[in-house]
């Protein structure tokens, strides 16, 4: 399916402020960028670099006063995500070197403290994909999705205790539980078609059977039509906007719809 995605950020800055944004999707597995635009109002110089996780990052200096960032893309997406029951656990010694970082505890994913819970959840399941799917199902059925009970400091351990949170919290818990079983796991942020209420979304991926697979504990079933913006160890690596000064987000508007016929 071709999706039209957009995000608008409305800021007000007390002084000129450095910003790093992560708002451009890139073509890759499961998605192809057909057309895009990136508008700054007022216009300011902007540069782009690729971070250590392969994400496209935009660097700029916002002006003082009102400032708007608008991005829009038309993306060819996969209607379904791949599933692979019985996909095998990958031995640590056989993992690609670049995936080893996703085995380690990180700021929001205390995998070294959640091993007992992980083993309770997976029981005698076949090591690998089946364990991750049991983790996803457990989170989906045991963690309440609700706004207002978590914040930017909430970690996987906090969510396991409180049993309430939002997509960011569901993802952190899934990542931490996978890592506690020595399964590499990473956080993903992006867009999901027909998400309700509409917003930017977070889910996680696990490395089993020699590749990454998508898992989303907020959904009832494996759902496609996703657009990835960024990957990282946890939310600290995939912030869509990082500011270094007195600038305030006044409003954010996110849209995902089926794209009309595209003329490039």
Summarize the topology.
Elements: E1 2-13, E2 17-21, E3 31-41, E4 46-50, E5 56-62, E6 65-77, H1 115-122, H2 129-142, E7 144-145, H3 156-162, E8 164-165, H4 167-180, E9 185-192, E10 201-208, E11 211-215, E12 226-232, E13 241-243, E14 247-258
Parallel strand pairs: 7-8
Antiparallel strand pairs: 1-6, 1-14, 2-5, 2-13, 3-6, 4-5, 9-10, 9-12, 10-11
Helix pairs in contact: 2-4, 3-4
Taken together, the total number of domains comes to: 2
Task: Give the strand order of the largest sheet, numbering strands 1, 2, ... along the chain.
Answer: 3-6-1-14
Structural class per helix/strand content?
alpha+beta
Termini, distance in Å?
17 Å
Radius of gyration: 19 Å
- CATH class of the largest domain, named Alpha Beta
CATH architecture of the largest domain, by name, is: Roll
Share of helix among residues? Answer: 10-25%
Low-confidence stretches: none
Oligomer: single chain
Bin the strand percentage.
Answer: 35-45%
In total, how many beta strands? 14
Query: Which fold does the CATH topology of the largest domain refer to?
Result: C8orf32 fold
Order of helices and strands: EEEEEEHHEHEHEEEEEE
* Average of pLDDT: 96
Protein name: Transglutaminase-like putative cysteine protease
Pfam families: Transglut_core
Domain Transglutaminase-like: 159-219
GO molecular function, one term: peptidase activity
Description:
By secondary structure, the chain is α+β, with helices and mostly antiparallel strands. It folds into two domains: 2-78 and 240-258, Immunoglobulin-like (Sandwich); 92-222, Roll (C8orf32 fold), CATH 3.10.620. Helices cover 16% and strands 38% of the residues. The protein contains four helices and 14 strands. The chain has helices at 115-122, 129-142, 156-162, 167-180; strands at residues 2-13, 17-21, 31-41, 46-50, 56-62, 65-77, 144-145, 164-165, 185-192, 201-208, 211-215, 226-232, 241-243, 247-258. The strands form four sheets. The protein has a four-stranded antiparallel β-sheet, with no helix packed on it. A four-stranded antiparallel β-sheet has the order 4-5-2-13, with no helix packed on it. A four-stranded antiparallel β-sheet has the order 11-10-9-12, with helices on one face. Helix 3 (156-162) links the parallel strand 7 and strand 8. The longest helix has 14 residues, at 129-142. It is globular. The model has no long low-confidence stretch (mean pLDDT 96).
């Amino acid at each position: 399916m071709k999706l039209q995605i957009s995000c608008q950020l409305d800021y007000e800055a007390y002084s000129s402020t450095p910003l790093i944004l992560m708002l451009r999707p890139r073509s890759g597995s499961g998605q192809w960028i057909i057309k895009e635009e990136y508008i700054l109002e007022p216009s300011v110089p902007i540069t782009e670099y690729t971070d250590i996780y392969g994400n496209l990052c935009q660097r700029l200096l916002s002006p003082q006063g009102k400032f708007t960032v608008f991005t829009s893309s038309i993306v060819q997406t996969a209607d379904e995500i791949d599933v692979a029951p019985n996909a095998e656990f990958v031995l640590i010694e056989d993992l690609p070197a670049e995936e080893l970082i996703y085995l380690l505890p990180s700021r929001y994913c205390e995998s070294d403290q959640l091993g007992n819970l992980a083993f309770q959840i997976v029981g005698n399941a076949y090591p690998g994909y089946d364990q991750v799917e049991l983790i996803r199902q457990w989170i989906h059925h045991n963690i309440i999705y609700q706004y207002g009970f978590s914040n930017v400091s909430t970690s996987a351990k906090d969510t396991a205790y409180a049993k309430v949170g939002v997509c960011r919290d569901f993802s952190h818990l899934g990542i931490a539980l996978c890592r506690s079983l020595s399964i590499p796991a990473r956080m993903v942020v992006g867009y999901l078609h027909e998400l309700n209420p509409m917003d930017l979304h977070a889910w996680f991926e696990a490395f089993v059977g020699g590749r990454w697979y998508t898992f989303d504990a907020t959904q009832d079933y494996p759902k496609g039509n996703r657009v990835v913006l960024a990957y990282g160890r946890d939310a600290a690596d995939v912030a869509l906007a990082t500011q270094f000064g007195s600038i305030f987000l006044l409003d954010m508007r996110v849209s995902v719809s089926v794209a009309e016929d595209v003329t490039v």
